Amino acid sequence: MAPVVRSMLVVDDDEDLRELMKEITSSMGVEEHVVAGGLRELEGQREAALRCALAILDVNLGPGAPTGVDVHHWLRREGFDGRIVFLTGHAEHDPRVRAAAEIPGTRVLRKPIGMADLAKVLERT
Amino acid sequence: MTFFLHAGFGVALAALVTFTGLSVGRRDRKHVLFAVMMFVLAAYLMLAQLQYRAPDWETMRPLFRTAWWMVSTYVFLLGWFSCEYAGIRLPRFVRWGAAAITLVFIVWNAVNPETLYFERAPTVAPKVLWGNQVYMIEGTYGPGGYAQQTFTTCVFLFGIGAGIDLVRRGSLRRGAILSTSNALLLVAAAIDVQREVAGADRPYLSEFAVAVMALLMSLELAIDFRIQERKLDAAVTRLERFMTVFLDVRDRVNTPLQTLMWSFELLQERKRPASEHEVLRMQRAVEKLVELSEELKRETAADDLRGGRDGPTVR
Fold first, then answer.
1. Which residue of A has its CA nearest to B252?
2. ipTM for the complex?
3. Is A110 in Cβ contact with B254 (below 8 Å)?
């Protein structure tokens, strides 16, 4: 298996999925995790979040809440220089997903993905 | 009298234009048939006016022949239209039989128009009807005339029956108009037969009855079209709403599905039974999927997407 990132940020409004992703990526070799259910929760962990090498963001973070795209903009504004990958259950024609796909240098993955695909995302570049 | 013929011609022409327009790009055969019927009727009424002005049989003969082609075609189309309008599918031998009879009349008319209707070549006599100086045929019915009247009567009776069948199936207005129109034609034809037999001095009523029928059916088809349009609008709105919900649910299904997928992959990789915590997590994912499925079921039931059709007669 190729070397994986040492630290990662997970932002998803589904608690079970956040927890599961943390478990799986830990088993794959990721040592540090920052997990949040949304932007507000993330702001409380600003320093740790900005140190991560990879961010996996859900696009839809609940009705009325800032989206994954907002989280992306916040991270970049705050100086996050790691890779950002969007993981969404929504289709390409969803305006939020379209907005995410239009951001240069990001990838958008459609749920559900297998653990092998997740492992590829974690690979250090 | 000329005024009524002109009015009938106008009605047929207006209906022809309207239903030709409505038929473009649509698969509704009844509108196409009705447009063709109106074309034939307009042509017939124009010829009828010319016939009333023809002073002798030699002048009238080509007009009479062409007019009877129109009549034969119209009667056949009317039978077909009644089938389409009432959503009735006749056995093949009946359909082909009617077509064959019509073809015989058309060929007969081409060969010898006199004997299709009369026993021998009729005479033409000047008459004054409703204040108009006209020329009318005087002749005795022949076997061809009786055969054609019998066939025409059968078509009218079928139209009345098709309307009654529609009423029985719950389409009161549509059925009543189809039956009334055909009954009107039947009564007018019966009076015209009596006129021929008794030699009474009055115009052919069928010409006016068919114009009234055209007017009635035009109105009915227009109402029918509007109702169909409204139903279509409502169905599109329902479908759009359902589509929105469906797409939303389709996307929301992916998160619990992702949880289940990774949970199973993780269990397979670890080769040990799931902990209570893991089982509960999977259970929650399944509950979310069930919840979304219920949401979809509720939406489908509330919208009744398969409903909204007006019985089997609506195409």
1. A89
2. 0.92
3. yes
How far apart CA B222 and CA A39 sit, in angstroms, is 58
User: B259 to chain A nearest CA, in Å?
Assistant: 6
| A-chain residues near B266 (CB < 8 A) | 20, 23-24, 27, 115
* Segment A97-124, tens digit of pLDDT: 999 999 998 999 999 999 999 999 999 7
SS3 at position B202 = coil
Identify the CA nearest to B81 among candidates B16, B35, B30: B30
Q: Which residues contact B140 (CB under 8 A, 6 or more apart)?
A: B118, B119, B120
- The torsion defined by the Cα of B158, B162, B163 and B168, in degrees rounded to 10, comes to 140
Question: Please, are residues A52 and A82 in contact by the beta-carbon 8 Å criterion?
Answer: yes
What per-residue confidence (pLDDT) applies to B145? Answer: 83
Q: Which residues of B touch A18 (CB under 8 A)?
A: none
Residue in this structure with the two tokens 């005087």, named with its chain if needed: B138
Chain B environment of A91 (Cβ under 8 Å): 247, 250-251
CA dist B219 → B21, B178, B182 (Å): 15, 12, 15
More confident residue, B199 or B168: B168
Please report the pLDDT score of residue B11 as a whole number.
Answer: 84
Cβ count near B272 (within 10 Å): 7
Side chain identity at A97, as an amino acid letter? V
